[in-house]
Amino acid sequence: MILNADILSHIPLFQGITVDELARLDTVLYPHIKNASSGEFLSYPEDVIEDTGIVLEGRIHMISEDFWGNQNIIAEFTKNTLFGEAHSISRTPLFFSLVAVEPSNLLFIRTQQILNAARCGDNGILKLYHNLMTIIIQKKLNYMKKADILSRRNLREKVSAFLSEEYQKNGTPSFTIPYDRQQMADYLSVDRCALSKELSKMKKEGILDYRHSWFQLKTL
Amino acid sequence: MILNADILSHIPLFQGITVDELARLDTVLYPHIKNASSGEFLSYPEDVIEDTGIVLEGRIHMISEDFWGNQNIIAEFTKNTLFGEAHSISRTPLFFSLVAVEPSNLLFIRTQQILNAARCGDNGILKLYHNLMTIIIQKKLNYMKKADILSRRNLREKVSAFLSEEYQKNGTPSFTIPYDRQQMADYLSVDRCALSKELSKMKKEGILDYRHSWFQLKTL
DNA sequence: ACTTGTATGTGGTATTTGCAACGGAGGTGT
DNA sequence: ACACCTCCGTTGCAAATACCACATACAAGT
Predict the structure, then answer these.
(1) Fewer CB near the last or first residue (10 Å), C or N of chain B?
(2) pTM of the full predicted structure?
(3) Cα separation of A48 and A46, whole Å?
(4) Gap between the Cα atoms of B60 and B53, Å rounded
(5) Residue B133 parent element (H or E)
C-alpha cells in the first residue's frame, strides 16, 4: 500500500481520513511515487495534467515565462503541500512550468477519481473532496490578498496593505512576520533597499515601529 | 418558489441542474432575494458570512481597506457572477467590504447547505458542489495570473506578461483584448500615460504592433 | 578576541513611473 | 459643417524607485 498513514498524517488533504478509508483510497486514487532530481522539469506550459502532486520531501517551483522569455517564480511548494490540483480538475492547459529545485520525493494521485468517486457517496472520498475544496479556497484567498497588495500604486501603500494583512492575521497591532527583509521585499515585488528606506521613513513619521521581523502599527 | 429556471439558466453555478432538482434545491438552500440600493454596504471587514451571493442585476464592489484607511477595489461582480462563496465555506472573517455600486438585485443561498447535503448523495447538490468547485478554481487561476503579472518588476515586464496571457487565451499572436487603454492600465495598476508610452516604445522596437484593443506580438 | 558571514540600513545616482496639460482622431448629434 | 465628447498618444517635469556601494549590527565559529 502506497498511502501510508504515518506519512500522510501531516498532509492537510488527508486530515480526518481513517485508516480504513485510506485503504480504500489506495485502490481508488492510483497513487504513485516519483523521485525528481534537482532541476528536473515535472511539466511544461500547455500540458494538460491528470494528477495532483504532493511534496513529501523537497521543493518545487512554479515558473511562468512570457512570449519573449522573461521568467517569474509564481509559487513555491514545500513539504506537505499540494500542487497541480486546480489544473487537474479543470483540465485546462498549464500556463507555467513545474520544476524541482531540490532532489524531491513526490506523491501523485489521480484527481479526477476524487470527483468520480464522490458521486458514489463514499465517505472517505467526500472528506477528501471537502479537504480539497478547503485547500483550494485557502490558496484562492492567498492569491487574492497578494493581488490586493501588489495592485497598490506605490511602495508605501504596498507596505501598509501587507502589514495590515499581518495585523489582521495576528489580531494585535504588535506581531512578528514570517519573512526576513529580503523575503518581504520579494513578496512585495520591490527592491530590498527601497523597502528598508520606506520602513525607516515610516518609523520616523511615527506610524509604526519595527526591528527585524517584529512590527508594531500605530494610529496617529 | 424563488429559484426560477429562466433566471438561473445563465448562471454558471446552476448549469446542468434539472427543473426537478431545482425544486428540491429551493427547499434545501434557503434562497432569498435582496434589493440593494447604490452605495449600500452588504458586509464589513471581520464579518463571518453564511451565504453565497449571486448578482441577478446590478454591480458589487469588493473593497479592502488597510490599517490607516487606504482603500482598494479588489474585485467587481456583475450580472450572473458569484461573491462570498469562498468565505462562506471557510467561515473565516472577511478582509474586505462588499458594496453595491448600482441599485442591485441579489440572490443569496446558504452555502453550508451545499456541503451538508452533499453527504446525503443528492444528485442535484453534487452537481452544484462540482459547479461551485469549478467556479472557485477559475477564480483562483485568475488571481494567480493577476499576481503573476503584478509581481513583475517594471512596466515593460507587466505589459509583456499581460499580453502573453492574452496570447495564450487566443492561441494566435494577433488578438483583441477585452479592455480599453484605461482599463488595461487599471488591471496592470499603472498610469494610463505611462502605459501608452511603453506600448509606443515597444512598437518602435518592433516587438509588437497594436491599434486600440488589437495587438500583434512579434518575435525578433 | 578575532574572523567570517549574513542581514539590515543608508547615501548617492540613474532610471522609471506618475502626473498634468494638451492635441489629434474618430464618433455622435444638431 | 459644426460643436461636442471620449479615447488615445505625446511632452515636459516631478516624484518614486531601482541600483550600486558601503557601513553597521549581530551571530557563529575558531
Answers:
(1) C
(2) 0.96
(3) 6
(4) 10
(5) helix B123-150
How many angstroms separate the CA atoms of A60 and A108, rounded? 14
Burial tier of A143 (Cβ tally within 10 Å: 0-12, 13-18, 19+):
buried
Query: What per-residue confidence (pLDDT) applies to B121?
Result: 76
Distance of alpha carbon A218 from the chain centroid = 31
* Nearest residue (CA) to C1' of C11: A197
Distance from the A183 Cα atom to the nearest Cα atom in chain B, whole angstroms: 13
**DSSP reduced 3-state for A110:** strand
- How many residue pairs bridge chain A and chain B with CB atoms within 8 Å of each other? 143
| Residue recorded with cell 454591480 | B59
For residue A104, what is its C-alpha cell? 524531491
Nucleotide with C1' nearest the B183 CA: D7
Contacts of A188 (CB under 8 A, 6+ apart): A149, A150, A155, A158, A159, A162, A195
User: Can you tell me the distance from the alpha carbon of B182 to that of B212, in angstroms, rounded to the nearest whole number?
Assistant: 11
Closest Cα partner for A104 from A167, A171, A33? A33
Strand partners, B205: none
* Bridge partner list, B53: B83, B108
For each successive 10 residues of chain B (220 residues), what is the average pLDDT? 88 95 93 96 97 97 94 96 98 97 96 88 88 98 98 98 97 96 98 98 96 93
CA dist A192 and A198 (Å) reads 10
- A87-138 confidence digits (pLDDT tens): 999 999 999 999 999 999 999 999 999 998 878 878 889 999 999 999 999 9
Bases on strand C under 7 Å from any protein CB: 7-12, 16-21
Question: Which three cell numbers mark A138?
Answer: 485557502
